[in-house]
Specification:
The protein is mostly beta strands. The protein is 4% helix and 25% strand. Strands 1, 3, 4, 5, 7, 11, 12, 13, 16 and 19 form a ten-stranded mixed β-sheet that branches. Strands 2, 6, 8, 9 and 10 form a five-stranded antiparallel β-sheet that branches.
Amino acid sequence: MISLDNAGTRALSLITAQNGASVTVNYSDYTIATGAYARGIPILTTITGATTTEICASPASGVIRDIDLVTIHNTYAGSHAMTLQVTSAVGGPFILETPTLAQGDSVKFTHGSGFDGRDSSNQTKFVMPGYLPLSGGTISGALTLSAALTYGGVTLTNAVTGTGNMVLATAPTFTTSINSGTTFTAFAGATTLLTIGGTGATSVVNIPGTKSGTTSTSAAVTINSLGVAENAFVGSTLNVTGITTLGGAIVGPATATVFNTVSTTINAFGAATTGLNIGGNASHIGIGTGGVGYSGTRHFHAFTSDGASTIALLEWFGGQFTGAAGDTAFLVGGSFSPTFIATQTASEAVGVVATARFAEPVITNNLTGGFAITKAATVFIVSAPTEGTTNAALWVDTGNVIVGGNTRLGGLTAPTVALDVTGAALISTTMTVTGGFGCNTKAAQTAYASGGALAAYGAGANGLDSGANMSALHALVVNMRAALVANGVMS
């Protein structure tokens, strides 16, 4: 209780450090001579400056003034330090309370319960300056900690703030957020788990902070519902059974297993214009295996097909797309077009430089029961388009074509000669044969048949000047026919 008497003309005053406070004082006067109580008129004071203001005057002589209620409300736009005191002509001043109030907060005094703080929502605020063990009770207002709080069955229904540590001795249930830069140590041992959020589809786990350091736990962190991670650090296994939205980059050590579940679906594209970036343009990426320093991207898989289809593929590029107006140069399913390939600066030869290289499939034939591989090839083209003005299954637009092995045109059997043509062949310009020439299964002839000599032409009864010249012409025709038959041109 605060009582003011006339001795020394004691009064109640407030020192404000800023320019905003609203004060209400209720009091009752006790007349000593008669023993009568009289309720005083509430005193309302508005303070607009940094000053000392009397908020309740001294009583008259022979009267004791009991202060029933004092409410001090901070109207300043910020933190405000104040001092409530009793002033006296004899001694003093006598300090009663030195509250520091946030904007909208207030301090309240009643003669029945003393002082308590209230936040802007009129919830009671408790300030605990030391180590305070709580063994029970309900705290309905905000709890401010400046040291450690040991949990022992306390129910917290409002915010807990402060700079101290909160030690939870048993398994608590949080009904609201833990925020304001809280460092939360959740694992007491290797076998314990931290369960964040509920199991419902609408439960959200928000991890906005960053944890750094080298110490990690061997226990798993399980998120059973929708999770949003922004700059979160997970030192051990993170098991996600719901959807996890990653607000930034996933940063790990030099060797880290990020996704190691049996089946993980990563929806990386939020809109048609966004992409998925894996590594930098100078990185070495391994898919199915580790990256190597002599390859930009390395694909390597070793698996057995599950038999769910009639096909099995090591790599599968499929899908569909639609061109846009202006896509007139080409529309292709895949393009290999390096910006450039620069050889090393060294005194050595390079065997092959190419945009694409295909090696034989190294087939291990495990077929049984007399079954065989019908067709085997390094490159197999299934079909040709039919929608173009000119269509082809394989089109070499420019440049030379060099074939190191035998080539068959038409038919399905393997060729045994450099060029094996089954079916008709059309040569629309000159064909020069520098070696032997054979037709209709005849062996190629490497020597020309002699045509003999034909004497000079002369007029005669049969158009020839002599019988000898007629014989020479006959012999020439015979030799020409023999040569055509030998080369397969005539039968």
